[in-house]
């Protein structure tokens, strides 16, 4: 099961292996909204 996140106006699909990348983008880009 994947989760959709929207980062800086870009919609992204996050799989389990992408969580680290998502968190990195959150810290770098600001707020992460599910």
TrEMBL record:
Q: In which domain of life is the source organism classified?
A: Bacteria
- Organism this protein belongs to: Candidatus Ordinivivax streblomastigis
Q: Give the protein's recorded name.
A: Uncharacterized protein
């Amino acid at each position: 099961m994947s989760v959709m996140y929207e980062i800086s106006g870009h919609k992204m699909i996050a799989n389990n292996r992408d969580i680290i990348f998502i968190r990195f983008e959150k810290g770098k880009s600001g707020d992460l909204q599910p």
